[in-house]
Predict the 3D structure of the following.
Amino acid sequence: MSESGSEGRQLIPIHVTVNGHAHDFDVEPHETLIELVRDRLGLIGTKKSCDMQVCGACTVLLDGRPVSACTMLAFEARNTHLLTIEGMADGEHLHPIQEAFIACSGFQCGFCTPGMILTTKALLRENPAPSEDEIKHYMRGNICRCTGYKRILDSIQDAARRLREETGHGA
């Protein structure tokens, strides 16, 4: 750890690649990943909600795996690749998962949608053709307070189909 500032605060230097762009930060030991993403990088698609790792609104992908940014410490992301919802699209071209959520109306207010989409990406990378039960099991950590989940399930199944047609495999 290195000291910085007149208060003698301990800062931890980290290197992290976010949405394909390399960044170096000095973070405080208690700084969370969501604070780094939202406050320092301005990537506000990652939502802060429960602060307890139960709702999934803050889900980001860390080296391809879904993590709760609200409870993960920023220094734990050092030397990793982080994907937020802002990194899903390729310029103006939406990712097939995003297209499926729009086509199937897999959202209402949209607050949980970024976390749902990123968790879906991880699921489909692991299992390109999941059953409905497999989807429900994998998505159990993502809560939506607006829908009955039917359209979310439809969106994930449509995304799986789109990805298999486009690439021959998952996300």
